[in-house]
Amino acid sequence: MSFKNKVAIVTGAGQGIGLEICSQLVKEGAHVFLNDIDVTLANNAAKQIIGNGGGNCIPLPGDSGDTIFIQQMVDTAVAQFGQLDIVIANAGITLFGDFFTYSPEAFFRVMQVNLGGTFFLAQAAANQMKKQALGGCLLFTSSVTGHQAHKDLAAYGMSKAALEMLAKNLVIELSQYKINVNTIAPGATLTERTLGDQEYAATWSRITPMGRAATVSDIANTAMFLVSEKAKHVTGQTLIVDGGWTSISPSPFQ
Questions:
Q1: Is residue 86 part of a domain?
Q2: I need a surface site. Which of 118, 169, 191, 221 has the fewest CB within 10 A?
Q3: Is 143 tagged catalytic?
């Protein structure tokens, strides 16, 4: 899967899954714009990738839920390389909370980043890809919580399920321009955030049929396929990467 000279934007990539996707894209020869809302994380992540083997990784710190900044990301990529081939809308926030007391502020922030950020990044990217007449790839990051209910994640799960419907709907809008659009739905994954919970790995290893939680490489490997030329006839689909958890869905709270 060569990505030589492809131009990609990956949001929410300062650490975890997004960082690993950027790393793999750069290794395969892509020019990658790495976005994160945390300036330090974005800059350090890009330096880390370049330091691990060279390549072209450019930090783009900023709020991926802000429509003005979204357009700036696309414009920056095109200004530097003349095209945009791959966009991975990976940024998202998880704000746990009891349904009965969940605040409007928390609800609308989740929707702004998870839904609005993805929708308007897809829009800006697709408009550019349409002008290029060369096609392109869009990939959204959903979650198994968009398929199975999870305590205190009503708003988050709702947003992730909506992303999968967005990918399906955009098949109607984008296929004629040779733009494919898919969604990846990770299950429990070992990242900097989840490893902060000392019980996380053990709990999810116990209830995942394959016997372990996913690594960031498990998710990134799948993402790489979905934005590669090998998957150009795959569109409007969601690929769940969860070690089989959604097939039986045992609760981590049991």
A1: yes
A2: 169
A3: yes
Residue 230 catalytic? Answer: no
How far, rounded to the nearest angstrom, does the alpha carbon of residue 134 sit from its chain's CA centroid? 23
In this predicted structure, the answer to whether residue 1 has a pLDDT above a threshold of 80 is: no
CATH number at 44 reads: 3.40.50.720
Q: Give the Cα separation of 234 and 253 in Å (integer).
A: 36
8 Å CB contact between 132 and 83: yes
Nearest to 219 by CA among 251, 183, 192, 248: 183
Among 160, 168, 177, 230, which one carries the catalytic annotation?
160
Active site residue 200: no
Cα separation, 171 vs 169, in Å, equals: 5
pLDDT band at 32 (very low <50, low <70, confident <90, very high): very high
The catalytically annotated residue of 6, 143, 159, 200 is: 143
For 18, the domain range is 7-240
* Catalytic-role residue among 6, 156, 159, 200: 156
Number of domains within the chain: 1
Q: Is the pLDDT of residue 53 over 90?
A: no
**pLDDT score recorded for residue 253:** 76
Q: Is residue 249 part of a domain?
A: no
Intra-chain end-to-end CA distance of the chain, in Å: 41
Whether residue 163 lies inside any domain: the answer is yes
